[in-house]
């Protein structure tokens, strides 16, 4: 049976970008002008949306998305919704405003947070599982407000009296909610409150296990839920070129940087997803290929999404097809640096995935990139 084309998103590097992990060489600072270049490029190239990350080291995703929405046409913006860091009523007003400004191009990424050290800096001191209980109340109130209800709510974490939203969003009843959480508490919140469950790029066996667990929970609640995956991409015309690019990306990382990053993941973070990412390689350079074409080199120093699909367009397309067979319908991709890699993925991988390209260009025009015709007469080879 033929599969529907996969939904393909890209990433706006609001914490900075570069050509070498762990090095300031050819580093690009997090500047709005650069974000705009990436957003406008992926809008033209046919990506359906972009993820904007969140955290102390990132530019604010809501403000950045508001700016980018005014200079793009079709691109959707997956923006962080942070229970605990803001209030549900204020988040509801932000949601309606940005959805209206973007003419219905807003998506929400529910981020409960997996780093207690960073959360403490935001004034949030709640244990891991309790954060999900708080998020459940938050999203219940948020959803009712955005849907147009007048809300009275008296819970463990929130009390609302006569809450309402006077300006409705474009998308009804609410913009879609995306969510990633590998723990038991995270999976329960995901199936109870959200529309699409995200996983980081684990080997297919791990993703299969996680999807099965989430589906069981959703079925018990009479709910359907979609699935997506977050991956980096290193796609080249030959396999040797792809693996050489992967090696080059981490060629300036020192052993000390790896040790410090891995210690930080263990000491500061209580995220089950991060634990699973780090366990794929254990901080060792000789254990980075964790499944065919799935490489964990990014996770040596980067928290969160730490794996990349590496290979030719055909190889990477085959790996994505395997994830689709498990139920994945959305990919959120990235690559270093993000502007150039957005073009590489669109030009090399999209055709192998059956994704469309811009047909406005007349390929029969004669120029240095295509042998075509002028005035309807065929060019003849020089004698």
In terms of topology, how is this protein built?
Blueprint (H helix, E strand, L loop, with lengths): L6 E5 L5 E2 L8 E2 L3 H14 L3 E3 L9 H9 L6 E6 L6 H14 L4 E5 L5 H6 L6 H19 L4 E4 L4 E5 L13 E3 L4 H10 L2 E5 L3 H17 L5 E10 L3 H11 L5 H14 L3 H8 L9 E3 L2 E2 L12 E4 L1 H14 L1 E7 L3 H16 L19 E2 L2 E2 L5
Parallel strand pairs: 1-4, 1-15, 4-5, 5-6, 6-9, 9-10, 10-11, 11-14, 11-15
Antiparallel strand pairs: 2-3, 7-8, 12-13, 13-14, 16-17
Helix pairs in contact: 1-12, 3-5, 5-6, 6-7, 11-12
The tally of helices reads 12
Sheet-strand content, in percent, reads 15-25%
Which whole number gives the mean pLDDT? 92
Give the CA-based shape: globular
CATH topology: TIM Barrel
Number of domains: 1
**Cα-atom Rg, whole angstroms?**
22 Å
Order of strands, main sheet, comes to 1-4-5-6-9-10-11-15
Helix content: 25-40%
The tally of beta strands, per DSSP, is 17
Within CATH, the superfamily carries the name Luciferase-like domain
Distance between the termini: 51 Å
- CATH level-two architecture: Alpha-Beta Barrel
Order of SSEs: EEEHEHEHEHHEEEHEHEHHHEEEHEHEE
Which stretches of 5+ consecutive residues score pLDDT under 50? 375-383
Major sheet, described briefly? 8 strands, parallel, barrel
Structural class: alpha/beta
CATH uppermost class? Alpha Beta
Organism: Xanthobacter tagetidis
InterPro entries: Alkanesulphonate_mOase_FMN-dep, Luciferase-like_dom, Luciferase-like_sf, SsuD_RutA_monooxygenase
Keywords: Flavoprotein, FMN, Monooxygenase, Oxidoreductase
Function: Catalyzes the desulfonation of aliphatic sulfonates.
């Amino acid at each position: 049976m033929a599969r529907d084309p996969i939904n393909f998103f890209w990433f706006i590097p609001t914490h900075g970008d570069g050509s070498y992990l762990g090095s300031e060489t050819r580093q690009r600072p997090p500047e709005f002008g650069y974000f705009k270049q990436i957003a406008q490029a992926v809008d033209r190239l046919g990506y359906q949306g972009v993820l904007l990350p969140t955290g102390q080291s990132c530019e604010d995703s809501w403000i950045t998305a508001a700016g980018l929405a005014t200079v793009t046409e079709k691109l959707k913006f997956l923006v962080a919704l942070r229970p605990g860091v803001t209030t549900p009523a204020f988040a509801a007003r932000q949601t309606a405003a940005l959805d209206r400004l973007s003419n219905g191009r807003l998506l929400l990424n529910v981020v409960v947070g997996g780093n207690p050290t960073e959360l403490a800096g935001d004034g949030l001191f709640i244990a891991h599982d309790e954060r999900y209980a708080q998020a459940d109340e938050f999203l219940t109130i948020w959803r009712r407000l955005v849907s147009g209800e007048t809300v009275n709510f008296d819970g463990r974490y929130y009390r609302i009296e006569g809450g309402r939203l006077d300006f409705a969003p474009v998308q009804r009843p609410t913009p879609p909610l995306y969510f990633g959480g590998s723990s038991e508490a995270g999976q329960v919140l995901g199936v109870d409150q959200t529309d699409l469950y995200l996983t980081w790029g684990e080997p297919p066996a791990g993703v299969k296990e996680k999807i099965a667990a989430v589906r069981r929970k959703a079925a018990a609640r009479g709910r359907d839920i979609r699935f997506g995956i977050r991956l980096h991409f290193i796609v080249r015309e030959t396999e040797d070129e792809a693996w050489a690019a992967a090696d080059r990306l981490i060629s300036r990382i020192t052993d000390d940087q790896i040790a410090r990053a891995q210690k930080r993941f263990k000491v500061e973070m209580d995220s089950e997803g991060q634990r699973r990412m780090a366990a794929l390689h254990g901080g060792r350079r000789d254990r980075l290929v964790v499944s065919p074409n799935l490489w964990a080199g990014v996770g040596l120093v980067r928290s969160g999404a730490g794996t990349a699909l590496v290979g030719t367009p055909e190889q990477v397309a085959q790996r994505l097809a395997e994830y689709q067979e498990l139920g994945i319908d959305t990919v959120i991709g990235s690559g270093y640096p993000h502007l150039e890699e957005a073009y590489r993925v669109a030009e090399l991988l999209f055709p192998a995935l059956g994704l469309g390209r811009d047909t406005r260009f007349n390929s029969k025009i004669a120029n240095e990139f295509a042998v075509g015709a002028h005035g309807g007469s065929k060019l003849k080879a020089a004698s």
